[in-house]
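During the second half of the funding period, the structural biology subgroup turned its attention to how the target accommodates small molecules. The most pressing case was iron/sulfur cluster, which had performed well in the primary screen but for which no bound structure existed. We therefore specified the complex as follows and requested a full 3D prediction, including the ligand pose.
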Amino acid sequence: MGEWKTQKNWEVEEADWNDTEKGREYKNFWFYKRPKGINIDITHRCPLECPSCQRQTEFLNHGKKVHGYDLDLSDIEKLAKYYHQFNFCGQLSDPVHHPKFIEMLKILRRYDCKTIIHNASTFKSMKWYIEAFKAYPENAKWIFAIDGLPEESHKYRINQDGPKMFQILLEAKKHLHLTPSWQFIIFSYNEHNVEKAKQMAFDNGLGFIEVQSSRWSSKDDPLIPKSQKYRLDTKR
Ligand code: SF4
């Protein structure tokens, strides 16, 4: 996949790719063979404090310790013999904070497991990221959370350095074979910037995932977008 200047551009290129032999093979594999996959929290660690996250709502806001522990590499090895797809979409943690995450990626590479990594914390160094991207460049899809333009993302992703996250995305593009994506959750403070962010992603050859949340504290949650087109509750 190349560089895209607009969403239309991207859609046309994706449609063309779907029609190639490689595209059909990929589609057949994922749609018809239904490989066994797992979504897994591998640690209890995350330095961010996103207000709607269960870390806060179920644990830290009540003075409780967040559940979980650092999974052993031997457990990942056992799982890799059975599952063909790993999704590290932390419900209670950010996978990059598992102390041996890079070794874990190397194991998954050895077993040829398709891997999806969701990352929002920016506390790891760029050097660490480069090592992580190089540990499994072929079949690891990285998705980075920036909720708003980079300089406003910390309004929800408390403690995050949004501009650094954007630099990490650009660096990821240099090393990974699968295009890294910018995931953007729409909130009241960023809804006017969705199109600008999308264009910024496409201008840099990145994927863009727009997410409409339904995880609100109440119907008066100040984070709820004002525009009807970004509100799931008004579409039911
Ligand atoms: S980055 Fe993920 S795990 Fe960490 S606080 Fe935010 S939602 Fe929760």
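Two results from this model are relevant to the next phase. Residues 46, 48-50, 53, 55, 90, 92-94, 120-121 surround iron/sulfur cluster (CB under 6 Å). The CA atoms of residues 195 and 227 lie 14 Å apart.
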